[in-house]
């Protein structure tokens, strides 16, 4: 087959609900596809990005039992944009809570961008529960990746005009630590300043994730509720480096050696450049790394989507 694969036709969840996971958090979840099919959990990006109906369409509904959920504070989960008890360890524990709640023994784990980070953290913590890993736009939360996005000389070199918009809400004397400066605005008492900062942070995200300019993407990222959740939660994780030590996920990759895996990585991904995916491949030689020559960051990029759907089709028969 040479024709690129696309999303499966639209289909609705067969059930949906909220699950109390403690700490005042309740997660929105949906299950779709074949109730007796291969189990898969989808982990969205951000952090704080939330899920969308198109996410489940990366899987054949005739062969997969698909669990999609919104992580703490994101999407329809409550409380909205909350930073309380919201860390990587909490999210890893939530995935296990969902697995046991639904009586699932083992499942495929599929995540892109921040979802790739969370997928790796979960798989390293619970390798016996993971049948396969499918990752897109690998982000390991090492310092160079944070600096690429939030210090001059990285993505700012590619998008100088958008960078000027990004730093505009921050006083000149505070621009040496943009993550910290944004944190003060996003957690401050001034509601107007919070929203201005959230929209600027999320607009920068929208620029770096698209290979070509996309007004629809920018409009989505900068809508009030989406911007607040993405900016507050993402900044919260960036400020704490994801609660991950430098090199922790690469070191943990030794636990993945017996797990079949595929990485789909856009060559021109300006949000999570290929360097991290390549490093993960060196630490986990058994994984299949597909670098898409005309791909960017988003799963909807034609070449990236083709690689992801081919991976899920392959693993559906395992």
Strand and helix map with partners:
Blueprint: E1 15-22, E2 25-33, E3 38-43, E4 64-69, H1 88-101, E5 107-112, H2 114-125, E6 130-136, H3 143-150, H4 155-158, H5 160-167, H6 178-186, H7 191-209, H8 215-222, H9 224-239, H10 248-252, E7 261-266, H11 275-283, E8 288-292, H12 302-316
Parallel strand pairs: 3-4, 3-5, 5-6, 6-7, 7-8
Antiparallel strand pairs: 1-2, 2-4
Helix pairs in contact: 1-2, 5-7, 6-9, 7-8, 7-9
List the main descriptive attributes of the protein structure presented here:
318 residues; alpha/beta; Rossmann fold; eight-stranded mixed β-sheet; 8 strands; 40% helix
Short overview:
This protein has 318 residues and is of the alpha/beta class.
What report would you give on this structure?
It is a single chain. α11 links the parallel β7 and β8. The protein is of the alpha/beta class and 318 residues long. The radius of gyration is 18 Å and the shape is globular. The protein has an eight-stranded mixed sheet with strand order 1-2-4-3-5-6-7-8, sandwiched between helices. The two termini are 20 Å apart. The model has no long low-confidence stretch (mean pLDDT 97). The protein is built from twelve helices and eight strands. It has helices at 88-101, 114-125, 143-150, 155-158, 160-167, 178-186, 191-209, 215-222, 224-239, 248-252, 275-283, 302-316; strands at 15-22, 25-33, 38-43, 64-69, 107-112, 130-136, 261-266, 288-292. The protein has two domains: 15-141 and 244-316, Rossmann fold (3-Layer(aba) Sandwich); 144-240, no CATH class.
Please identify the structural class as seen in this structure.
Answer: alpha/beta
Average pLDDT over all residues? 97
Tell the overall outline: globular
- CATH topology term of the largest domain: Rossmann fold
Q: What's the number of helices?
A: 12
Rg estimate, integer Å: 18 Å
Q: Looking at this structure, what is the CATH superfamily of the largest domain?
A: Alpha/Beta hydrolase fold, catalytic domain
Specify the biggest β-sheet: 8 strands, mixed
Number of domains: 2
Low-confidence blocks of residues: none
CATH-scheme architecture of the largest domain: 3-Layer(aba) Sandwich
The proportion of strand residues reads 15-25%
Count of extended strands:
8
For the biggest β-sheet, the strand order reads 1-2-4-3-5-6-7-8
